[in-house]
Amino acid sequence: MTDKPDDLIDWKTFTETRNLLGAGFVRILGYFREDGTKSVAAIEEAMRLKDSAKLVIPAHTLKGESWQFGADQLALLAEEIEIAARHYVEIQIDPSELVEKVVRLRPVFEATLAALESEASPLVERRPVSFGQRNALGGMSYG
């Protein structure tokens, strides 16, 4: 796993979601921050308790919400944890083999969230514009 924003986020999916949600995008991203923080904490607690069953729902939730924002690396990591935890529940063993993945989860979540929030900031310039090009509003851009 890497923490380079371009490797963490599928920017095409991010842009599609931002366009689809419009004015509600920042609010929904805030929910992702809250829910994701809770999910990561619940996964860490389930690992401390060595409880495979308690890993499943927060990993599933984190996976689904991550896919919506194009947070592919985070979604894949959450999916790996979820699938393994489901298997461990079936065969009735503790999730000790997932320790490394769970340890990676928080840094990937934090890096992902930072990249998403940075891009969602109204102060971020979306696209470089060359001198003399028309901008999206039909005016001239000189930057």
Radius of gyration: 18 Å
Q: The CATH topology, please? A: Four Helix Bundle (Hemerythrin (Met), subunit A)
Helices, by number, come to: 6
Structural class: mainly alpha
Number of domains: 1
Low-confidence stretches: 125-143
If classified by CATH, what would the architecture be? Up-down Bundle
Termini gap: 36 Å
Superfamily (CATH H level) name? HPT domain
Question: In words, what does this structure look like?
Answer:
With 143 residues, the protein is mainly alpha-helical. The protein has one domain: Four Helix Bundle (Hemerythrin (Met), subunit A). It has six helices and two strands. A two-stranded antiparallel ribbon has the order 1-2. Helix 3 (25-49) runs antiparallel to helix 6. The longest helix has 25 residues, at 25-49. The protein is elongated and about 45 Å long. The chain starts with a helix and ends with a strand.
Name its key features.
143 residues, mainly alpha, Four Helix Bundle (Hemerythrin (Met), subunit A), two-stranded antiparallel sheet, disordered C terminus, HPT_dom_sf, Sig_transdc_His_kin_Hpt_dom, phosphoprotein
Task: Summarize the entry for a quick read.
By secondary structure, this protein is mostly helical.
List the helices and strands and how they pair.
Elements lengths: L4 H4 L2 H11 L3 H25 L3 H17 L2 H20 L7 H22 L12 E2 L5 E2 L2
Antiparallel strand pairs: 1-2
Helix pairs in contact: 3-4, 3-6, 4-5, 5-6
